[in-house]
Amino acid sequence: MFTSFSTALSALSAHSTAVDVVGNNLANLNTPGFKASTVSFYDLVTQSLGAGLGDTQVGFGVGRPITLRNFSQGAIQVSSGPLDAAIQGDGFLILKGQQGQTVYSRGGSLIVDKSGNLLTGKGYKIQGWTNQGNTLDTTGPVGDIVIPVGSIKPPVASTAFQFDMNLNAAASLGPPPESFRTSIEIFDSLGTSHVVSVAFTKSATPNAWDYSISIPDADVAAPVAPLTGTMQFDSNGKLTSPDAVTPISFAIAGLANGSSDINLNWGIYNGLTPRITQYAQPSAVSANSQDGQPSAQLIRVGVGDGGRILAQYSNGVQSAVGQVAMASIRNPESLVAVGDSAFQLSEKSALPAIGTSGTGGRGSILGGAIEASTVDIAREFTNLIIYQRGYQANTRVITTVDEISQETINLKR
Model pTM? Predict the structure, then answer.
């Protein structure tokens, strides 16, 4: 009879622990990336009473509950933070603590410090790969992701330009002969812009146009002579000369601002397909492009889908400056929570497999989103009521055994 005291006390301790677990789950109802814990009860060894072999067995109560972390998928919620990231599927972000310890997390509310390090709100450094020069190599070891905060993107000098256009086959020979003029902005090695003009004049030769490429005299120390030539079309309006093998090059030497000389190639073919046609439609440009860029300031950094860190510059150019790494752990329930929705390996944990988003069984990183907590408030309230009833029931056991003890003591009176 008197083992009922210890049995009931073990139940009170177990149910108290279970209530603590429920309270922690409810406290983290709105914590991004939080994984709810469940409680698993187990009974203690039993004792056999009397001479029979197990005919009468009485247990010693319940052991301290085992808590199991539920790594199910949380709801993906769209956020307004450009550095927010959510994981859809299996896997963890890899974080490095201030003491150099490695932890793993699914919480993706990220920030950038004054040195450009990509961090969590608690100061853990996000691990991945950083763009070195113009190369983003994701096959090497992971390290701290460093954003080029406050840096200036160097200019890229123009080397080629193109026009997709049509020249009017019904143009008049005049006099004066009908002409068409267009232009494009290019950049030198210092990032200064220049305007290159191309003029087309209807030639007396059937299905032919004369062209002239020029740059303003004010942009150069000494005037540069225009580059001239003739374009020949067949009876179907297809360009036949110049051919696709010989490029049209326009050299600009002696720029007034002291930048390097420019050698431009005019791409009049897309592979073997001419970019310029001659049909009986008004002369017009449908598209143009060139490969130069001015210098630019970094104005915004964000996490894109797939975990790429995208930098946007003041000239409108976007480039990948980093890649977030992911770790896949076969038995995540063995991880030990260390706070901030982060976990560290235990002796039971499998070695993490590190790679990029969407590879090797790892889930996908979604930019501009947050994974919500997996806490189900309805289930937690239900568990809370059950554990409360269990606690109350075992207090009744202690009260009843106490009353029986008093009756037993009173027998000697």
Answer: 0.73
